[in-house]
Design goal:
The chain is built from 21 helices and 21 strands. Strands 14, 15, 16, 17, 18, 19, 20 and 21 form an eight-stranded mixed β-sheet that branches. The termini are far apart.
Amino acid sequence: MRVKVSDDMAVEQARAVAEALAERFGDDVTVLSADGEELGHASYDGDGDSEFTADADPEADLDLGPTEREELLWEQIEEIESGGKEKYKQQLPEQGKKFVRDRIDLWFDDDSDGDGFLFEDGKFAEFDADDVLPADGLITGGAQFEGRNVHFMANDYTVKRGSMAAKGVEKFLRMQQRALKTAQPVLYLMDSSGGRIDQQTGFFANREGVGKYYYNHSMLSGRVPQICVLYGPCIAGAAYTPVFADFTIMVRGMSSMAIASPRMVEMVTGEKISLEDLGGPDVHATHSGSADLVADDEEHARELVAKLIGYLPNNSDEKPPRIDPVAPAKPPRGIDGVIPQEPNRGYDMVDLIDRIVDAGSWFELRPEYGKEILTGFARIDGRSIGIVANQPAHRAGAIFPDSAEKAAGFIWTCDAYNIPLLYLADTPGFMAGSQVEKEGILEQGKKMIYATSSATVPKQCVVVRKAYGAGIYAMSGPAYDPESTLALPSGEIAIMGPEAAINAVYANKLAAIDDEEERKRRERELREEYREDIDARRMGSEVVIDEIVPPSTLREELKNRFAFYENVEKDRPDKKHGTVL
C-alpha cells in the first residue's frame, strides 16, 4: 500500500501513520510526500506487528564533504589549468598577451547577457606524459558568446609554444566534427608555432591527423561561421586555420602568420627577414588580404568579433538576426549633395553609406586591402545586409585585381549565410594596363562576376554615378538578376566614359579641325550628346533600370525593397558546382 502525506509531516508522524495502517489492513505500507518522495516503509510481519524503516534524511548528505578521491581530482585539475612551465608564463606579459585561460575568461566570463564558459573537453589529454603537457597545449569546448552557443579552441602558448601534437589534434578534430553536427559557429583562438616536429609520426600524415583540420574547415565552410583570432606567431600548418576561416582578426604587435618561419625562409631562399615583415598584421591586412581586421589588443579583438557575429546567423539554414532599427547617423536628404556635380571628381562613398544605413551599423572588412571597393556589413531598418561599393576616393573607384578578389570573397560569404546584398556602383570599370594583366585582372574580375551571378540572396543595385564597362556587370547590373536596379539622377551606364568614347570614335574628325576653339567646342558638344545617351533618364526610358530615385528617399526605397524581397527564392542550374574558384 502507498500513502501520500503532507510535506510538513515529521518522520515520527509518518511512522505512526504507517504502522497504524499496516496493522489495520495487514499489509506493507510505503509513505510518500506530496511530491512523491518516499519518507519511509512499514513492513507487516503477519502477527499483528509492523516495523517502520525511515528513508535516509535528504539533509544528511549536506554534511559530507569531498572525499580524498575528489580532492585529488581537484588538485590535478588545478595543476592542469595552471598551464605549462612557469618560465613560459612569465614571458607572456612581455609579449603583451594573456595566459590562455585568462583569455578564455575574457571571452566567456559570465555577464548580464548570460554569456559564459559552459564546458571543456579533453582536459586530461597527455596527463600521463613524461613531459609537462597539460591538456596537450590545446583547450576545446563549448561556450555562450553574445547570447550564441559557440564551439571554441584555444592554444596554450606555455605548452611547447602552442604547438600541435596527437592528442591536441584529436581534440581539435572532434570539436570541428561536433560543430558540423550542431550547426553552431566556431571560434578559433590561435597562438601556435605549428606541429611538433619531434612527434610528427603521431599526427602529421594520419588519416585523422592534422591534415584533416583543413578537410573539416572545408566541410564547415559556408555551413557555420568560422571566426579566427590570432594572438601570436602561427606558422606552417597552423597558418592555414586563419586563412580557411570566414573571418580572420590579427592583433597588432603580437600576431603573425606565414607558411614558414624567418629561419626556414633564410635556409631555403637566403632572405633575411623579421617575422613582422614576413607575416605581420600590416602584411596581411594591406598586401595579401588574408586579415579581415586588425585589433589593437586582446580586448579590442573581442569587441570586433562581438560586433561581427551580430550580423551573422548561426548557420546556413537560418537568416541573420534582426534588431530594432535606428535612424541613419546623417540625414538622407544630404545624399545628393555628397555626390559631386563633376562626373570625374572623387568623394568618399562612406558619406553616402552613413546616410542610408542604421547609425553605427557600418562595419567595414579588409579596409586596407583593395581600397577601390568597400566591403562590409550594415543594417537597414534593423536588417543585416552586405554592402559592396565602389570607392571614388581611391583610384577613381576603378576595379583592380585585389579589389575584385576582395569583393568576390565577400559576396560569396554573404550568399552562404543568407545576408542580402546592396551594390553601390560608381566605377569607370576594370583597370587596364600591363601591370594589372600580370596581376590577373581577368581572372579576379571573372571571380567577382561569377560570385555576383551565382548569389541567390536578395540583391539591390544602385547606380550612384558612373557605371562603365564591365563594372556594371560586376556590380550586379540589370543582367545579373538583382531584385531592383535603381539609379540616382547622377547615374550613367555606358561602355566607357564620354572622354574615352569621343576619343575612340571621333579622334580623326576632331583632329581635322584646324581651329583650336572650334575643335574644343565640337568636342564639348559630342561629350554632351554622348552623356545624354547614357544618362539615367534615358536608361529609365528604355526600362533598362527599374526606377530613378530622388536621393533623399534612397534609404526608404531600399528599406521597402529589402523587406518586400526578404523571402525571394531563386533557382540556379542543377549541377554539382561551378568551375570558377
